[in-house]
Amino acid sequence: SLWRERVLPPVIDAVAAGQARRDIASGSFRCDLLARARDRGRDVGFPLRWVEGRGEALPFEDRAFDTVVLTYAFCSVDDTERTAREIARVIADGGQLVFAEHGLALDAGSRRVQRWLDPSWQRLAGGCRLDRDVVGALVATDRFQLDWVHVREDWPRWMSTIRSGRMVATS
To answer: What are the backbone angles phi and psi of residue 71, rounded to the nearest 5°?
Structure first.
């Protein structure tokens, strides 16, 4: 899976190298998803803090984390620029942001379909938006340097343009 192949390895590498702090928090703005994650995370072998919150106002101190993992969440925040700034705020200098997100299609035709479908899609998919430029929003904070990004387009492209990657927080 994309999670096992692209997202998890940089996180595991940081833990194995002793770079990761042992304060690990997991969050969601949806109580149902947080409850499912809490159930699945009971036996991970280390303590986890479970936090309900919004991406636009993360309930953490500045530079609190050396690794932030963002997976299929950016599509559902109300304000992508503010959320990107909040992620930039909570990640320590030299920390890593590892992500896997669906979003803005590569070709103009698919982007037109995304924008046309987006209002209906939001109502059907719990607020999920099809046409978010995740990498662009994060790079625009001037806090991250892109280490690598992998783009996968499945069919239909308007729904399945997935970017996974790693960014490093600069000071």
So the answer is: -135, 120
